[in-house]
Every structure is written in C-alpha cells, then in structure tokens.
Amino acid sequence: MKHRESLQRMTTLHRLRPHQAMSLHRPRGLCVRAERGKLWVTIEGEPADIQLQPGDSCIFDSQATVVIGAVGGSAVLSTTRRGTPAWPQRLQAALAGVWTEAVA
Fold first, then answer.
1. What residue spans define the domains of the chain?
2. 1-37 pLDDT, tens digit each
3. 3-state DSSP assignment of residue 87
4. Are the C-beta atoms of 14 and 76 separated by less than 8 Å?
C-alpha cells in the first residue's frame, strides 16, 4: 500500500527593479520562474551562476542561500513551493515507510 498526499502549491510573484536583488534562505524544493525580464541566480557555495530568460525556471535542491537579481531592466519572478502536510500526515508517511522497510 502506498501513501499518497495531496499538497497545495503556494505561488508568490516578486517584482525586481533594474539591478535590484533578493535573497532566498533555505530554498530546498522552491521553484523560481522568470515571468518577465532576465534573472541572474547565485547559489551560495556553487562555482557557476544561473541565468534565467523569460519562461525559464529552476528548482533548488539545497538549503544554501540564493541571491536573485534583475539584469538589464526590471523583472518579475514567481516562487512556488509545495505546501507542507500537517504533522499527523508526516508521521503517518514516516511510519508507513518504516513498516514497508521492516516487512520487506
């Protein structure tokens, strides 16, 4: 038996003025999408930066701080994160995983 969860997605729009930047702390699982304008993305500890054109997106898989800036004009970006289930659902999922491993 597999455990299934229905999680809502929470999307927020952010406007950046030319050369303005914003920081994202603990972004694991967050999707950033360039809605309008170009974005420059720097991930703390990563050797290379990412450039996003309108329509491009990336999902962060670490908790390292991320700095996002508008390049060559203003920009609009969206951030989307899955909702976190309430603790009873997380506990049930964890126990289901342990039970499956113990039986297998």
1. 9-103
2. 343 444 456 889 999 999 999 999 988 888 999 999 9
3. helix
4. yes
**DSSP assignment letter at 6:** -
Q: Residue 48: pLDDT above 80?
A: yes
State both tokens at 3.
């455990």
- Of 66, 79, 72, which Cα lies nearest the Cα of 38? 72
Contact present, 5 and 83 (Cβ < 8 Å): no
* Among the listed residues 72, 68, 71, 85, the one whose alpha carbon sits nearest the alpha carbon of residue 33: 68
Distance CA 70, CA 22 (A): 9
Instruction: Inform me whether the pLDDT recorded for 75 exceeds 80.
Output: yes
Among 3.40.50.2300, 3.40.50.920, 3.10.350.10, 2.60.120.10, what is the CATH number of 9-103?
2.60.120.10
Task: Evaluate the CA torsion angle 54, 77, 30, 45 in order and state its sign.
Answer: positive
Q: How far apart are CA 15 and CA 1, in angstroms?
A: 44
